[in-house]
Amino acid sequence: MTVPDPLAEVRAEFAAGLDKRIDAMQAALGRLQHEFRVEDARALYQAAHALTGTAGSMGADGLAQAAADLEGLARGWLTRGEAVPEEWRVAAAAVGELDASAREYRATVRAGALRTPAARLAVLGELTSLINAAVDMREIFQGAILKVERVLDFRRASVVLVDESASHYYLHTLYDKVRGGFIPGEAVFPIARGVTGEAIRSGRPIRVDALPGTEGILLQDGTRVSAMIVPLHVGERVIGALNFGHEAPGQYTDEDLDWAVVLGRQIETSLYYSKLLKTIAEQREALARQHAAVRQQRNQLEALIEASDAAIMLVGSDRRVAYANHEMARLLGIPGDAMRGTGLEIVHRFLAGALSDPSALTAQEQALAGAAPLRDRVEFAFPRAATCQRVVAPVRDPGGALVGHIVLYRDVTREVEVEHLKSEFVSVVSHELRTPMTSIKTSLALLLAGATGALDPAAREMLEIALRNADRLIRLVNDLLDLSRIEARRMEFQLEPVALADAIKSSIEALAAFAADAGVTVETEPPAEALRVLGVRGRVEQVVVNLVSNAIKFSPPGGRVQVRWRRDGDGVVVEVADEGPGIPPEKLQVTFEPFRQLDSSTTRAHGGAGLGLAISHGIVQALGGKLWAESEVGAGSRFFVRLRLASN
């Protein structure tokens, strides 16, 4: 038997309304050709925006793409306050594509097959065998819903059961066609209210042609839907109800209701004579306790998420949105109720239209496809220009299995502005300090050289101390200037081949006195071949000096620092290894942040502003390379620099 498309009528209704949608967009576009008005641009954007999501959910990809193009153009006009002629012609072409895609889509839409009495009788026979063989109440309800789907259109079907006090009913089994099948539900409702409560109180089936749309049956407010509610009896007692809901009003007939009643009676009879009747009370009580606990935990979690100023959504392993807070719905421009169950491809389509660079979604797709977290910043152009911190992190169950991901966008525009102002301030202050500090150093050096006459030993010692501290201050000022350039992304170099062996040799020679004072030996292990990297000689030496001096600083007296380098594909890797105390794994990344040092008395004893590794990290990135560290507590640390290999 050919199974009819359960959404055939919805698709037909959508196809029938396409002309009206396209005419409205053509009218708005025609008015915009002669005069730009915000209300016309907004009407065009809203119509295209709505059609993008609806067409995507109906499988009309051509319509969705053309509408998305039109939506992007209208969004740009709203942002700039004008519609340039070239873009207007592109928009007109997009409307033409919409019209052509609409004709193709209407040609593919077929009316759903009629639900024949013979087919429904066959389903009842199958249900008898299924229910009599089942050993679990949930198995009975799920099996019945799946078979009924063949002969009755519905968006949602559910079974609710009455609690022990008979004052409430709770959701036992829930099937949602749009969300892909059976889904968990923990809702509890008072019997004294609602159409389902009325059916349970009266014990009579109810058919409603225009019920106010609720989440799950309909995802947009202000629309009416169809529903059928059939109470389930065991003896003289109503134990629950069987519910069917459709997104279109007036969907069900009296014949449909009569058939649903027969279906309910079949389920009742099987329940009455099965062994399940003995366990209903126990299962109901256990489920009620479980649902209450889960509901409380979920309510607490949702309250916390809603209270956050960040846009947050939970994506299940089925790549559908399991939950999204109000901020995420506002960011995407999707109604809050519509977010749950929405496919990830639709969400990303909206995000692509809002991001300044749609390619930023590639990293998010990769993170959602695996178990590695993502943490970065992205720029939004719509609904307003903003910088957001993005976090994509895996969510695991108590057993460690991956069950989905959490996606978070937090507006950090103000923080970025403050960071920029801080960098500018540091740059200005450092630049202003460098000239007087250089002058002070020069004056001290002249005094020590006898420019004003011979010095007694005490005065010479004081001047030498002052000169050493002036050198330290000048190095700090230079580090601050480098850091400000890195943070402002103004560190750009003219790359040239650099002989790596010569650069490393010069760096180690510059640290010879420092290593001798610390009682540390610096050894090198060059490769057999001479290697050259793409870089700037002075900056490469600066990185090596920072890494080797850091290794010397944390090595014990009598320890060794090893510097080795090797070819690595199209690059060269330099390794600096020490015999120091090591770094805990959770602190490895912190070492590359400015003004950050490991929180230990050993680290603090060595002093320093904590800028060397941060500056080295920025320089290596500007050179197109990579800097990272590996360490084990008590077994020393190893820092690696990878730079691109220069052609000979």
Provide a brief overview of the structure.
The protein has 648 residues and is an alpha+beta fold. The protein has helices spanning 8-16, 18-34, 38-57, 61-80, 85-108, 117-133, 137-148, 194-202, 254-273, 280-307, 326-332, 336-339, 344-354, 361-369, 413-448, 457-487, 500-510, 512-518, 537-554, 601-605, 612-622; strands at 156-162, 168-176, 181-182, 188-190, 206-212, 224-234, 237-246, 311-316, 321-324, 374-380, 386-396, 402-411, 496-499, 521-525, 532-535, 560-568, 571-577, 626-631, 637-644.
Please give the count of helices: 21
The CATH top-level class label of the largest domain = Alpha Beta
Main pleated-sheet profile: 7 strands, antiparallel
Helix content: 40-55%
Please provide a written account of the structure.
The N and C termini lie far apart (72 Å). The strands form four sheets. Strands 1, 2, 3, 4, 5, 6 and 7 form a seven-stranded antiparallel β-sheet that branches. This protein folds into five domains: 101 residues, Four Helix Bundle (Hemerythrin (Met), subunit A) (Up-down Bundle); 173 residues, GAF domain (Beta-Lactamase, 2-Layer Sandwich); 103 residues, 2-Layer Sandwich (Beta-Lactamase), CATH 3.30.450.20; 72 residues, Helix Hairpins; 149 residues, Heat Shock Protein 90, CATH 3.30.565. Helix 17 crosses helix 19. The protein is 50% helix and 20% strand. The protein is α+β, with helices and mostly antiparallel strands and 648 residues long. About 3% of the residues have low confidence.
